[in-house]
Specification:
214 residues, globular, 0% strand, 9 helices
């Protein structure tokens, strides 16, 4: 039997957690990604290589890492955020941050050098160049946001480890699909699965549309 309240609740939790984690990761990626891309320092190539490797980090490993950090015996245990939506946001942040940062670094390293010397000769600062790059390709940043959001909302392993799939609190769509299917409530699992697939299709369509626009 389909429980509409639980379905709506799980959708809301998924959207809330995924939107917050995506926005936090995007802001962090802009700040750190630009700094890494436009500056030269000794460990730059190593950091970029590590970020590239982390783009394929298994979600359960990211969840385990966050769990060790925020559990009672962990260094951040005093925050008491384990098994809360905040913990899920942190876990998804860890998963999508390397993806966003890698894309931004690649973009800046291609777009930045061609007009760097010319604009600096006219008295433009690095901050002016960054503002220009941000304004120049707004559709590119929207694409990055969509990629991050799509990755976050479809994630299950990490969110389940640190969220605990608590009813009315941290049970998002992916957790509810797994739970209801295991209980034999196939209808609920199918409905949520179709909703999740629809969201993924919309995101894919928008990404392809923006790529064509670029």
């Amino acid at each position: 039997m389909l429980n509409y309240n639980q379905v709506i609740e799980s959708i809301f939790i998924s959207l809330y957690v995924s939107l917050f984690s995506t926005l936090l990761a995007f802001i962090t990626s802009i700040i750190l990604g630009y700094w890494i891309a436009i500056n030269s320092f000794q460990l730059k190539k190593i950091i970029i290589s590590i970020l590239g490797s982390l783009t394929s980090i298994p979600p359960v490993c990211a969840g385990l890492l966050v769990y060790l950090l925020i559990s009672r015996s962990g260094p951040l245990g005093w925050m008491e955020i384990l098994y809360t939506p905040t913990a899920m946001i942190v876990a998804q942040f860890v998963i999508i941050l390397p993806i966003m940062m890698t894309l931004i670094i690649q973009y800046v390293e291609v777009e930045y050098p061609p007009f760097k010397e010319e604009l600096i000769s006219y008295g433009a600062s690095k901050f002016d160049l960054i503002k220009l790059l941000l304004k120049n390709r707004s559709s590119f940043y929207l694409t990055i946001l969509l990629i991050g959001f799509g990755r976050a909302i479809s994630e299950y392993g990490a969110a389940a480890i640190v969220g605990g799939s608590i009813d009315h609190v941290t049970r998002n769509m992916t957790a509810m699909i797994a739970l209801e299917t295991a209980k034999g409530n196939i209808l609920t699992g199918v409905v949520l699965g179709l909703i999740l697939i629809s969201i993924s299709l919309v995101i894919s369509f928008m990404i392809n549309f923006l790529k064509d626009k670029n």
